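Module 6 notes. Inverse folding takes a fixed backbone as the condition and produces residue identities as the prediction. Think of it as a translation problem where the source language is geometry and the target language is the twenty amino acids. Below is one complete input and output pair. Work through it position by position during the lab.
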């Protein structure tokens, strides 16, 4: 019924995977491996790259409700909700030791954090425009107190906070450097820009950045929890985060990671470099890398079911409406309440 999608896939981790070099049993291990996908039929671009997870129940009621929309989409004041509210809304994952997770809850804090890159230098792998624009621009808001700017011209280049990994090591900048950025009484941090999609093209690779959030003593922010995929400059506005937050209806699901906009010929080998961080071993689950053309539907049965149920519901509504028009029921007439009249 639907145009047939052309797809190729390789399972790279989890139960039944033949790729021992990709396997992890602990989260955030960072194992690097290569996954090769052979294109067996000509594929017309754009070609979508998905990660597929099996055995992960995003549709579980307890999972779905474990998040705080007050954190993710605060009002204009951007004030953080009370701790007692977060404890209820985000149960059971609202704190990491003494610091409140921002955002808290199981949904945002199980973010898929494998890093996928395409090794083929002749192909362009794009990771933008994979999420709804409204989610990025309107739904998810950065925390209270967030701001960033390029290193001021009078800023010290030797400050320890400007080392490559200082922002994830929780190394604050010298107070004089923060004051030079206009933050006289606030703690700020340094960041060496990675550039590209990771930083949402806000800066070029190697640029020196100063940034601040509301309170690092009180909160653990998203970029600290998932430094592999979340930039401190982007945070909850990451497209990969927005994609993950669209929870799936089934325990086996695919989510869009990127796309290749050129046509691929039969026989092409796509080589992906994967930094494996997302553990499915504890779930007895599977992770698969999928490349597919844009036509066709992944769950044809589900699509057909919705169409059939909709048509049956419409036909039933028309039948009852026609019956009411042709033989209307007289409401409130005593002769139609004989069971009451006989007992009177």
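Target side of the pair, the amino acids:
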């Amino acid at each position: 019924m639907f145009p047939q999608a052309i797809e190729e896939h390789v399972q790279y981790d989890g139960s039944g995977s033949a790729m021992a070099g990709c396997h992890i049993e602990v989260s955030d291990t960072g194992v690097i491996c290569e996954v090769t996908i052979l294109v067996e039929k000509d594929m017309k671009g754009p070609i979508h790259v998905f990660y597929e997870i099996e055995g992960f129940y995003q549709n579980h009621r307890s999972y779905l409700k474990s998040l705080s929309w007050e954190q993710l989409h605060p009002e204009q004041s951007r004030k953080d909700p009370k701790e007692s509210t977060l404890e209820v809304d985000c149960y059971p994952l609202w704190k990491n030791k003494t610091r409140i997770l921002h955002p808290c809850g199981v949904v945002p804090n199980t973010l898929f954090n494998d890093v996928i890159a395409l090794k083929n230098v002749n192909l362009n792998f794009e990771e933008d425009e994979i999420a709804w624009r409204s989610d990025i621009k309107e739904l998810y808001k950065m925390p209270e107190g967030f701001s960033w700017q390029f290193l001021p011209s009078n800023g010290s280049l030797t400050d320890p906070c400007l080392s490559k990994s200082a922002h994830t090591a929780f190394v604050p900048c010298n107070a004089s450097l923060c004051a030079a950025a206009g933050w006289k009484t606030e703690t700020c941090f340094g960041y060496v820009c990675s550039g590209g999609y990771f930083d949402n093209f806000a800066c070029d690779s190697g640029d020196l950045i100063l940034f601040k959030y509301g309170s690092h003593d009180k909160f653990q922010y998203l970029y600290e929890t998932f430094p592999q995929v979340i930039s401190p400059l982007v945070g909850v506005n990451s497209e990969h985060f927005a994609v993950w937050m669209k929870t799936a209806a089934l325990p086996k699901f695919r989510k869009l990671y990127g796309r290749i906009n050129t046509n691929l010929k039969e026989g092409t080998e796509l080589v992906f470099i994967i930094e494996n961080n997302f553990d499915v071993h504890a779930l007895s689950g599977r992770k698969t890398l999928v490349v597919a053309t844009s036509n066709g539907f992944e769950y044809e049965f589900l699509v057909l079911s919705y169409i059939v149920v909709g048509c049956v519901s419409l036909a039933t509504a028309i039948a009852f409406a026609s019956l009411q028009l042709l033989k209307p029921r007289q409401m409130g007439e005593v002769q139609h309440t004989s069971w009451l009249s006989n007992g009177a």
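Reference fact for the lab report: The longest helix spans residues 300-326.
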